[in-house]
Amino acid sequence: MHLIIAEKNIAARRIAEILAGADSVSSEKKGPKVRTGKDNGVNTYRFDDTITLGLRGHVVEIDFEPGYSNWRSEINTPRTLIDAKTIKKPTAKNIVSLIKKISKTATLVTIATDYDREGELIGKEAFEIVRSTNKDVPVHRARFSAITPQEITTAFEDPAGIDFDLAAAGEARQIIDLLWGASLTRFISIAAKRGGKSILSVGRVQSPTLAMIVDREKEIEAFVPEPYWMLSVDSEKDGTPVTARHTTDRFQDKREAVQAEHNTAAPLVVTSVKEGTRTDRAPAPFDTTSFIVAAARLHFSAANAMRIAEDLYMNGYVSYPRTDNTVYPKSLDLDEILKELKKTSLSKAVQWTQANRRKEPTHGKKSSTDHPPIHPAGAAKKEALTDDQWKIYELIVRRFLATLSPDARWATLKYLFDAGTETYTATGSRLTEAGYREVYTYSEAKDTILPEMQVGNHLPILAINNEEKFTTPPPRYSQSKLIQQMEELGLGTKSTRHEVIGKLISRRYVEGTPVRPTLVGRGVVEAMENHNVPITNPEMTRTIEQHMEEIKEANLTRDEVISESQTMLRHVFDALEANEDQIGREIMDRNDEERIIGKCPVCGHDLMIRQTKGMSQFIGCTGYPNCTFNIGLPSAMWGTAIREDKVCEIHNLNYVRLIRKGARPWEIGCPLCNHISSNHEALMMMPSSDEEMIARLHASHIYSVYEVANLEPERLTKALGTDKATVACLREEAQGVLEILRKRSELKKFVRKHVVPRRGRSPAKVAAALVEAGVGDMGGLAAMTPEALTQMHLSATEAETLLNETRAVHNRAALREYGVPAVSLKKYFEAGITTPADFCALHPAYLSIITGIKPETAWKHATAVCTGMGVTPPKKVTTKMVETGRNELLDISGLGESMLERLYRAGVIDTTGLKDADAKKLGKATGIPTEKIRAFQDACK
DNA sequence: GCAAGGTC
After folding, report:
1. Which sequence ranges are marked TM in the entry (predicted)?
2. pLDDT digits (tens, 9 = 90+) for A831-858
3. Closest listed residue to residue A630, CA positions, set A645, A646, A641, A644
């Protein structure tokens, strides 16, 4: 059995198809020669005596050996990670075990992973898995830069061996990244007392990228606009307006500009006419970066563009989207692709390209061995794709066509003029041959047409414009610009660059589009830079690249390179550990700064966003505890509160938004405005409140009912200008409102927990409908009918379940309130006694025997509940009474334990009770035949 | 809980 291992499932399938087809003698006999199957959850492709399967990229991962998982360990400090041993552990266990299984009996294994460094390492990982169960099977390596019949057949006809040096270079990179990344991440997170979700990460790629963004921001902040002046004249020729610019493009000095303006005098005399042509080169094929840049012009974010391209790739519409290559390999049949594309709705453009096909396709600078440039791989129907998918597909198709289309040509025209002692110029251009622009329609070809003029022509001067302008700072990075810049600096790869931005955002190092750094992002970069940690420098990547080259060439070994890196990292830690406190403080100060949203209106100290250990967050005064002013915010379950740049004009406080992963941010706006409006309704719930009173409270910075209920009465007296008695009354009212609100929020919480969100029916909506209908607490909900609930966006079954759950919760709460202790309550519930009504209706003796609770205690509970419910409590029951009655009853022949229980349930606990009972009724209540009851009654007598 | 790199 020949085992072929590809880097990914799709590659495995295509390789199998090509090899199976190439094997067949006559090509006319088409059809599914390849048998697709699933083994251990992995797709397999079999033909003849061959089985092909795809990995999922790296199927093993490196990590530290066990013992290093505790970040705060006294023994294994971050520093010890530098020399910690690393291990490889499987990440795709099913694939690993399948390879092991097949390898045992394989007679040949071919590694057919991607033709690049990481592919070689992935191949070596597969090789090691094979070797773990089969020491002898020959292992080949097939290398190809496109999965075309030609390349695949040659690669398999002439296989090579694994390049272990190249793979070792990849391993060195892996280990160095882990050592530096993990040790520094832990160190700096601990120094700044950050844990859990808010750790501060550091890495060879993310940190220099962050540093780039921080640097740009500093450049912008430090930028001082310089004024300059631009001079132009408006004129016309035979009715066509002409604007001519002064040949000094920018005057740095105002006096010079004014002087030139003075020296400008009519007429404008044409002194030179220059005609020319300009070639506008057709664009090069797409690699990942240029594709992301082009998609950005269509308003796709980098990550979104890649996700869509990957989708299209998985469906066979476009080639592999992660590539560094801008040169089509010879083996790619470009004309065949054109033919295929004629089936699409873009066939007109395709036809144009075929008719005007340039001999050699355009090419970019980078030719690499991994994959061909991004190109269409199949005809897609517009209806089969989403709008966005189609836009991306069309972009890739049109770019492909453009690379096979002629250059565009422009006719250019340049005039020079004299005006007094000054010289002016005007330039025009006109598209003469559209070329690739016929098919690549993403930028408008704008003509600037000038009227025809000859040397010596005189033109009038209609106006002289002397405009003062200012230089502008460099712009913040857009996502695509950032990716371009990363590529230039060698940071990240075609597959990872677009993810780095997401990582920086999720760590809250940067925000916004275009991206700008947060203070914490800045703090981390500055901490690294100030303490000479070279990881924020792209130079580190360059050094690693050089070392990898040396390992590949076998001039250095993997371990030599790692060891050198470890020595460096140890020096870094010497400096870091000596300054741990200072580093931590610097970052924490930055963090605090980011949370300050303005001045406290009461005492003038800073107001700061604060989070408690639980889910609540608020804005508090840094003057606490002397000043207790605070502003409420929605629970952190809706998102973490973040300061925004915008400032409220009324309160002079920064706006706040709540951010949560996977959700749109919730724009709170001015937190105080929000606080005021969300508390207004509650304030109005106090019977004696009115707008005027609320205005007075606000004037004293009292905004919530909670404050009215809890502030010192003196403050209220002062704020409202009333007497103590009124204030005391008001405080009582506020307490009442708080209680109503507490119950309402309990109800909302319950609804949120038990109502499944669906389109158009959020739990919040259901809760709002309940409050609207006057149902304000759990008791109210428990008392509702299922019918009423179905009016509130719930289905009949949902209503019933909700009611059952509500009643269970409500009853438990009610029973606790009546005085049944929690431990006993548990026993009652287990025995099926769940409602207050049960306690009133059932005999305490019955409650006792089915729960094992002493009769006296059960009686006490029943009494408490009945009193609470306003029902006559049962007569006292004692252990002795129960025992005597029980013995009496059991003496009656034919009356056993199970019947006894039924009698208890019906309230009969002794012979007296039995005798006095109505036999018919008791029969019905117990399910015991009436004659039998009569017989028992007779026996008593 | 940490990196970066594959792939889904």
Report:
1. none
2. 888 888 887 888 888 888 888 888 888 8
3. A641
CA distances, A490 to each of A68, A301, A538, A539, A544 (Å): 31, 21, 8, 9, 11
For chain A, the maximum distance between any two Cα atoms, rounded to a whole number of angstroms, is 144
Side-chain half-sphere CA neighbours of A599 within 13 A: 7
List CB contacts of A523: < 8 A, sequence separation 6 or more. A192, A586, A587, A589, A590, A591
Residue with tokens 């002016």: A424
| Closest C1' nucleotide to A310's CA | B8
Q: List the one residue out of A821, A860, A840, A835 whose CA is nearest residue A779.
A: A835
Nearest nucleotide by C1' position to the A307 CA atom = B8
The answer to whether strand B lies under 7 Å from the CB of residue A489 is: no
Backbone angles phi, psi at A603, to 5 degrees: -120, -10
In sequence order, the 6+-apart residues with CB closer than 8 A to the CB of A165 are A551, A552, A553, A554
Paired with A388 in beta bridges are none
Close Cβ partners of A719 (under 8 Å, ≥ 6 residues apart): A696, A697, A699, A700, A702
Q: Is A228 a catalytic residue?
A: no
| Amino acid A570 CA to nucleotide B5 C1' distance, rounded Å | 25
* CA–centroid distance for A908 within its chain: 65
User: A266 beta carbon < 7 A from strand B?
Assistant: no
Q: How far is the CA of A823 from the C1' of B3 (A)?
A: 51
Read off the pLDDT of residues A534-581 as tens digits, 9 standing for 90 and up. 999 999 999 999 999 999 999 999 999 999 999 999 999 999 999 999
Residue A831 to residue A822: CA distance in whole angstroms: 14
Q: Between the CA of A352 and the C1' of B1, what is the distance in angstroms?
A: 57
In terms of DSSP bridges, do strands A408-419 and A596-599 run parallel, antiparallel, or are they unpaired? unpaired
Provide the β-strand partners of residue A218: none
- The answer to whether strand B lies under 7 Å from the CB of residue A79 is no
Give the residue ranges of DSSP H helices in A610-723: 671-684, 691-699, 705-710, 713-720
The answer to whether the beta carbon of residue A536 comes closer than 7 angstroms to any atom of strand B is: no
Q: What is d(CA A352, CA A367) in angstroms, rounded to the nearest whole number? A: 28
DSSP per position, A340-403: HHTTSTTHHHHHHHHHT--SS----S---SS-PPB-B-S---GGGS-HHHHHHHHHHHHHHHHH
A636 DSSP assignment: G
pLDDT of residue A553: 94
Quick one: tokens of A358?
A: 């340039």
Strand B proximity: list residues 815-874 of A with CB under 7 Å.
none
Nucleic strand B contact set for A 125-184 (CB, < 7 Å):
173-174, 177-178, 181-182
Please pick, among A320, A424, A509, A846, the residue that the annotation labels catalytic.
A320
Peptide bond between residue A625 and the one before it cis (omega within 30 degrees of 0): yes
- A235 backbone dihedrals φ, ψ, rounded to 5°: -145, -175
Q: Which residue has the tokens 């030719």?
A: A367
Proportion of chain A in helix, strand, coil states, percent, rounded to 5: 50, 15, 35
The segment with the largest mean pLDDT, out of A193-197, A218-222, A698-702, is A218-222
pLDDT > 90: what percent of chain A? 58
- List the domains of chain A with CATH numbers: 2-56+92-162 (3.40.50.140), 192-219+481-587 (1.10.460.10), 227-281+409-470 (2.70.20.10), 299-405 (1.10.290.10)
A189 touches strand B (CB under 7 A): yes
Say yes or no: Cβ of A10 under 7 A from any atom of strand B: yes
Distances in Å between the alpha carbon of A550 and those of A164, A166, A544, A610?
13, 10, 10, 52
Q: Give the residue whose CA sits closest to B1 at C1'.
A: A196
